[in-house]
Amino acid sequence: KAGVTQTPRYLIKTRGQQVTLSCSPISGHRSVSWYQQTPGQGLQFLFEYFSETQRNKGNFPGRFSGRQFSNSRSEMNVSTLELGDSALYLCASSPGTENTGELFFGEGSRLTVL
Amino acid sequence: LAKTTQPISMDSYEGQEVNITCSHNNIATNDYITWYQQFPSQGPRFIIQGYKTKVTNEVASLFIPADRKSSTLSLPRVSLSDTAVYYCLANNNAGNMLTFGGGTRLMVKP
């Protein structure tokens, strides 16, 4: 079956703008989590959604938000972009009913903020 | 979540067995040890997970001693395509908020 799909793969924004990233999980998976990867901070957990509800949240400012739709697709939004938001944003899905630690990651959306 | 410590980088040659050791001194009773592999510009890929003793699958083995304060990922007969970053995690499976450390950058040479 198809893997986790993230769009767009690459995008460039300027400071102060906002951005929305999309993630389609593996069919049947109900949990979607988001991670930010930067050279300096590594892979950091942003938040997780399960059945349209935020189940876990990492230590990121309120400019970072997300949501999940009834078909389990998820979006994350970053408002008032800063240079430091330049990163690879990764989405991961899992069945969600049993959290085994096995997540299926997409290829990511690479955001560059100028 | 338990913090893990692993070597920053390792070099190996094709056909060799590679062992990457991870330290997790303060691992909790309900924590599992999970390893992920990541290639450049791709998301991490689950390799293997274990709780204690030894776990083996088609790509790797995971050795966990009785005290569970460390673990070793063993990759048999590596090839050039195994060049990647390997992450060791200790997660309690209570949620999907995984904590990734710095990982080990494995370079396989011909």
Structure description:
The complex is a heterodimer of chains A (114) and B (110). Chain A has 114 residues and is mostly beta strands. Helices cover 0% and strands 53% of the residues of chain A. Chain A has no helices and 11 strands. Chain A has strands at 5-7, 10-13, 19-24, 31-38, 42-50, 53-57, 64-68, 74-78, 87-94, 104-105, 109-113. In chain A, strands 2, 4, 5, 6, 9, 10 and 11 form a 7-stranded mixed sheet that branches. Chain A has a 4-stranded antiparallel sheet with strand order 1-3-8-7, with no helix packed on it. In chain A, strand 7 (64-68) and strand 8 form a beta hairpin. Chain A is globular and about 40 Å long. Chain B is mostly beta strands. The radius of gyration of chain B is 13 Å and the shape is globular. The relative contact order of chain B is 0.35. Chain A binds chain B through residues 4, 31, 33, 35, 42-45, 48, 55-56, 58, 88, 90-92, 94, 96, 98-108, 110, and chain B through 32, 34, 41-46, 49, 87, 89, 91, 93-103.
Helix content of chain B: under 10%
Helix vs. strand class of chain B: mainly beta
Radius of gyration of chain B: 13 Å
Low-confidence stretches of chain B: none
- The overall strand count of chain B is 9
β-strand percent of chain A reads: over 45%
Question: Can I get a quick summary?
Answer:
The complex is a heterodimer of chains A (114) and B (110). Chain A has 114 residues and is mostly beta strands.
Topology:
The complex is a heterodimer of chains A (about 110) and B (about 110).
Chain A: E1 5-7, E2 10-13, E3 19-24, E4 31-38, E5 42-50, E6 53-57, E7 64-68, E8 74-78, E9 87-94, E10 104-105, E11 109-113
Chain B: E1 9-13, E2 18-23, E3 32-38, E4 45-50, E5 53-56, E6 61-64, E7 70-75, E8 84-91, E9 104-109
Parallel strand pairs in B: 1-9
Antiparallel strand pairs in B: 2-7, 3-4, 3-8, 5-6, 6-7, 8-9
